[in-house]
Design a protein that fits this description.
This protein is an alpha+beta fold. It contains six helices and eight strands, in the order ββαααβββαβαββα. β3 and β4 form a beta hairpin. α1 crosses α3. The longest helix is centred in the middle third of the chain and has 15 residues. The protein is globular.
């Protein structure tokens, strides 16, 4: 993927130099419990950064002004029978929450997927208690399609049993994206 540049951001492939920025947000338990990315050292983050550098389904979101990594976007293309469908997601450093970077970068990614990769449908999973992500999906024009009860477990209860979470699925079609109010 070529770099995507917005007013304030650069969306690009990861590289090893992103390890410190990556460590800063994936060491947060709220993030790493969902990504299976538990890290406790910068060396572990370097391995994760290298893995992302070789994975086209994960892209770095950096501040245009400084080049510093502030988060990431995920784009997983479905199998050959639904190759025009992508699952999308995002994780950002808590220090930049509330500044509109997630919205700005997701809009740019959606535009890229719909116009450059000919995506037909994008969808995202959001936990039922993650109100900020639900609001972001709605800002992007996505509609809530379903609620999967006790859908998935990323963490365990204190007794060691899986803690299952209710998860919403949001989606948007290319034709909806193209006719949205910008």
């Amino acid at each position: 993927m070529r770099n995507i540049v917005t007013d304030r951001l650069i969306i690009r492939r990861f590289d090893e130099a992103d390890a410190a920025g990556l460590f800063e947000y994936i060491s947060n338990p709220r993030v790493n419990c969902f990504m299976d990315d538990k890290v406790t050292t910068l060396e572990e983050a370097k391995v994760k950064a290298q893995k992302r550098a070789n994975d086209a389904s994960c892209v770095a979101v950096c501040l245009k002004e400084t080049g510093g990594l502030i988060g990431e976007l995920m784009l997983h293309q479905e199998d050959q029978h639904q190759a025009d469908t992508y699952s999308v997601g995002r994780n950002f450093n808590e220090k930049v929450h509330g500044k509109g970077y997630a919205t700005e970068s997701a809009r740019a990614l959606f535009e890229h997927l719909f116009t450059q990769r000919d995506a037909r449908r994008l969808y995202a999973y959001v936990e039922d208690d993650n109100f900020k992500s639900q609001k972001l999906c709605e800002k992007l024009g996505m509609r809530k399609e379903a609620c999967f009860m006790e859908f998935i477990s990323f963490v365990n209860n204190p007794d060691g049993t899986p803690k299952y979470e209710n998860t919403f699925q949001y989606a948007i079609l290319k034709k909806e994206w193209l006719r949205r109010d910008t």
